[in-house]
Design brief:
By secondary structure, this protein is an alpha/beta fold. It is 29% helix and 7% strand. Strands 2-1-3-5-4 form a five-stranded mixed sheet, with helices on both faces. InterPro entries: MUG/TDG, Uracil-DNA_glycosylase-like, Uracil-DNA_glycosylase-like_sf.
Length: 313
């Protein structure tokens, strides 16, 4: 199948009323549209983070996406329906219209929490729906709810392995844990003062405590993740050399802001780390505890983690 043929395909929403979470992407990538599943790339951390955080009790993958609404209260949608090789191929008109359509979906299905998978997605949404781009955008609960709903907006790092600030699955687990705690708080299951609607910030100490308290399962070595770390999708039989989806990337949604200048001026660009960045030789970190592997992002000069570039999502 040629790239042009793949671009005629779409990725259907998975939505039912009153879900706990709706995971929101920008638009379908080539691989997701070709397979017809959400987050299919081996370098995407979404399914791994669901498991490591305890949201799911077993390790799932993209073939389980249709089971999530009934079993876990999780659905999926995109701002824009059209499949493209990258988000840079979307026009301002498509993004404006996509933001309005997204609001209509959220108003119709009334999820508890709208989860934006990456900063750029929420920046686009905020600009089109609320009329401004946030000056200081932090992960977690956002100050504004979806218009005319009680749906809370929650921002998490992009699940892509190309997210330079959080390049590994275990770097992102804290935000999935906090999402789960927010869900429970909103549903009245627990009262947790750490999760607030207006003010939310990443706390490295809390992240380590979460890791120890929940005894996060050890992350298993995934060769597909290592192969995809540089941004090239290389699952057997589905790479460019096999001819089905030329140019396909590792993630289902173009969560990195690669929109052309003039279309999304001021948007943050998603850095693509090289294969050498963020790795420990021989994959030795896989045998270490989760708590020890949470990066120090406080800006301390004593951090041993290499700087991977500008903050992106």
């Amino acid at each position: 199948m040629t790239e042009a043929e793949v671009m005629t395909k779409t990725l259907p929403d998975i939505l039912t009323p009153n879900l706990d979470f709706v995971i929101i992407g920008i638009n379908p990538g080539l691989m997701a549209a070709y397979i017809g599943r959400w987050f299919p790339g081996p370098g995407n951390h979404f399914w791994k983070c669901l498991f490591l955080s305890g949201i799911t009790e077993v390790q799932l993958n993209h073939m389980h996406d249709q089971t999530l609404p009934e079993k876990y209260g999780i659905g999926f949608t995109n701002m824009v329906e059209r499949t493209t090789p990258g988000s840079k191929d979307l026009s301002n008109k498509e993004l404006r219209q996509g933001g309005k359509v997204l609001v209509e979906k959220l108003q119709k299905y009334k999820p508890l929490i709208a989860v934006f998978n990456g900063k750029c997605i929420y920046e686009m949404f905020s600009r089109e729906i609320f009329g401004f781009k946030p000056k200081k955008l932090e992960f977690g609960v956002q100050p504004s709810k979806v218009p005319d709903t009680e749906t809370v907006c929650y921002l998490m790092p992009s699940s892509s392995a190309r997210c330079a600030q959080f390049p590994r699955a275990q770097d992102k687990v804290h935000f999935y844990i906090k999402l789960m705690e927010l869900r429970d708080q909103l549903k009245g299951v627990v009262k947790n003062k750490e999760v607030e609607e207006i003010k939310y910030s990443f706390d490295l100490g809390l992240a380590k405590e979460d890791a120890k308290r929940l005894a996060i399962k050890e992350e298993q070595y995934d060769p597909g993740y290592e192969e995809a770390f540089g941004g090239a999708y290389s699952e057997a039989g589905l790479g460019p050399e096999a001819g089905p989806v030329p140019g396909a990337g590792p993630e289902q949604s173009n969560g990195h802001c690669s929109l052309s200048s003039g279309e999304m001026e001021g948007s943050s660009a998603e850095a693509t780390p090289t294969a050498a960045e963020g790795r420990v030789p021989g994959g030795s970190w896989m045998t270490q505890s989760f708590a020890d592997e949470i990066p120090d992002i406080s800006g301390s000069s004593n951090s041993t983690r290499p700087q991977l570039g500008a903050e992106t999502a």
